[in-house]
Design brief:
The chain is of the alpha/beta class. The chain has one domain (4-248): Ribokinase (UDP-N-acetylmuramoyl-L-alanine:D-glutamate ligase, 3-Layer(aba) Sandwich), CATH 3.40.1190. The chain is 37% helix and 22% strand. It has eight helices and nine strands. The protein has helices spanning 18-28, 56-67, 83-95, 120-128, 139-146, 154-166, 210-223, 228-244; strands at residues 4-12, 32-44, 47-53, 74-77, 101-103, 134-135, 172-174, 183-190, 193-200. A six-stranded mixed beta sheet has the order 3-2-1-4-5-6. β8 and β9 (193-200) form a beta hairpin.
């Protein structure tokens, strides 16, 4: 049986993040990838110059086309810029009884450009977080979802993760890449346990698409039948290596992409 994963996310015209990063990740990890495109962006390694939302009814049409035909093993959700699209995705998940959902609450691009309208945050909390098997916020995203200050240490990260669990997520992977220090430490938080996932912090400006890549890699693992813990650990390892190899690429003049195919070439 072919392992199939779907990405429901925005398109990055520069190829480093969004559905382009997700499809590269799926392919690199041996999973067939399909897409539901929620937005078109005009962007490159230097920033986002425009966003064109896909109409919610066409997002629904894509969901129906993909999920009525393909045997989807898992999916990741990325950029959903407005409340109508969020509602369309939530209804689609219910309609096709999707439970292996990785939700990456994309709010701001690596360049600093905002990708989520403020009025959509409440819809994300109410409609999609309760459907997430794995929620993958970074430190600023967790603070925005909770309308609070950014965590400054692991104790606060853990506390915020438990607050997100109370919103309905089954598991929260709160990412520490925005923190300082020699290691990048993520916390995988479940109601009764917390696991630390640490890796050496890699100094590079080529980090565009790391969040998309991580969530897609988790979905790929789940699509292949891995447990949440194994999928998350495998994804962390894959992304760390992709960042370490990023400087082997020469793409653009801003924040370049990670090297999705570092294992292949």
């Amino acid at each position: 049986m072919t392992a199939i994963a779907v990405t429901i996310a925005g398109s990055d015209s520069g190829g480093g993040a969004g559905i382009q990063a997700d499809l590269k990740t799926f392919a690199a990890l041996g999973v067939y990838g399909a897409t539901v495109i929620t937005a078109l962006t005009a962007q490159n390694t230097k920033g986002v110059s425009g966003v064109h939302d896909v109409p919610a009814e066409f997002v629904t049409a894509q969901i129906d086309a993909v999920f009525s035909d393909l045997k989807v093993g898992a999916l990741k959700i990325g950029m959903l810029s407005n409340a109508a699209i969020i509602a369309a995705v939530a209804e689609g998940l219910d309609r096709y009884k999707q439970t292996k959902v990785v939700l990456d609450p994309v709010m701001v691009a690596t360049s600093g450009d905002r990708l989520l309208k403020p009025d959509a945050i409440d819809a994300l909390r109410r409609l999609l977080i309760p459907k997430a098997l794995v929620l993958t916020p970074n430190i600023p995203e967790a603070a925005a979802l909770l309308d609070t200050e950014m965590a400054e240490d692991e104790a606060v990260m853990r506390h915020q993760a438990h607050r997100l669990l109370k919103l309905g997520a089954k598991t929260v992977l709160i990412k520490g890449g925005h923190d300082d220090g020699p290691e990048s430490t993520d916390l995988l938080v479940e109601p009764d346990s917390t696991s630390r996932l640490s890796a050496e912090r890699i100094v590079t400006r080529n980090t565009h698409g790391t969040g998309c890549t991580l969530s897609a890699a988790i979905a790929a693992g789940l699509a292949k039948g891995e447990s949440v813990a194994d999928a998350v650990r495998g994804a962390k390892s894959y992304v760390t290596a992709a960042i370490a190899a990023a400087d082997r690429l020469s793409v653009g003049s801003g924040h370049g992409p990670v090297h999705h195919f570092h294992r292949q070439f």
